[in-house]
Every structure is written in C-alpha cells, then in structure tokens.
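re: the backbone from monday

yeah here it is again, tokenized this time
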C-alpha cells in the first residue's frame, strides 16, 4: 500500500505541478494581454488625438471658407453698387432740374430716385447725413476747402457700407449761421 500511496502522492504532486505550471502560463498570458491592451489604448489615444485635431482643423477651414465667401460676396456687392452710384447722382440732378412738383416727369424721377435709395438701404448701404451736421473729414469732402464748421449744403450724396465709407459726401461748409 505504501507504493500505492506513494504513487497517489506522486500523482497529486504531478497534478499540482501541472496546475501550477498552467497557472504560471495563464498569469504570463494575462500579463502579455494586459501589455497588448495598454499598447492598443496608446494607439487608440494617439488616433483619437489626431482625429480631434483634424476635426478642429476642418471646422476652422470650414469657418474660414464661409467667411471668405461672405467677404467676397460683400466685395462684389460693393463693386456693383459703386457702379450704380453715378446713376443715383444723375437721377438726383434730374429731379433738381425739374422744379415743378406737379409735373408727372418730376414725380416719376423722384419715385425712381426714392426706389434706388430704398434699394441701397436694403442692401446695407447708408446715406451719409450731411446738412446741419459738423464737418467730418472722414465722411465729408469739402468743396470750398474749409475743414471746420457746419455743413450748409450737400453737392453729392455720400454712402457707407458695413461702417466703411464707400464714397464721401461732397459738401459746402459754413460757420453754422446759415448758407455761406
């Protein structure tokens, strides 16, 4: 019996060694898998960071393109309106030449001029206010060379677009006590 007990003991020791060997192998596999998992996490984080940067870059690019498109549209609008302004001047001159307010031609010219001015305002253009205002060299151009005083007469309308002077008003300047 002794030999059977010894064999059984040897068998249990063998099984124990086998189990310990398997446990050691599994522990090594777990360490290897944890190491691989950590490596994959690093790769994921690198890719995610690159993706975040690319997304931000693309968003900035999209905004820049929208802004450039908007600015180009504004620039084109300004260019076209600059070409139309002489027509406004001619209509204004024609309405001044026809003094009779009952004349149908005078009424028609005034209506067309008013519609032009309304169109310009709708497109973001502003008529520069002049008569009775202090002379401002940033928005007025003095016909008589005076640079101080009150604007007494407007010779040509000035216009602003988006806060920028497109064409200064040509004015006559006095001391504010009436026309000079």
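seq for it, each position gets an aa:
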């Amino acid at each position: 019996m002794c030999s059977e007990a010894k064999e059984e003991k040897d068998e249990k020791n063998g099984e124990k060694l086998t189990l310990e060997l398997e446990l050691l192998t599994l522990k090594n596999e777990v360490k290897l898998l944890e190491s691989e998992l950590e490596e994959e996490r690093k790769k994921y984080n690198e890719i995610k960071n690159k993706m975040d940067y690319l997304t931000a870059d693309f968003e900035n690019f999209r905004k820049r393109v929208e802004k450039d498109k908007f600015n180009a549209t504004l620039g084109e609008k300004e260019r076209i309106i600059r070409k139309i302004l002489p027509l406004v001047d001619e209509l204004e001159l024609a309405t001044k030449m026809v003094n009779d307010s009952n004349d149908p031609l005078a009424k028609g010219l005034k209506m067309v001029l008013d519609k032009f001015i309304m169109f310009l305002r709708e497109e973001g253009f502003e008529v520069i206010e002049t008569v009775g205002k202090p002379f401002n060299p940033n928005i007025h151009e003095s016909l008589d060379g005076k640079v101080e005083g009150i604007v007494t007469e407007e010779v040509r309308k000035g216009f602003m677009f988006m806060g920028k002077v497109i064409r200064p008003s040509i004015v006559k300047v006095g001391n504010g006590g009436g026309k000079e």
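The beta strands are 125-127, 140-142, 150-156, 159-161, 164-167, 169-174. The chain has two helices and six strands.
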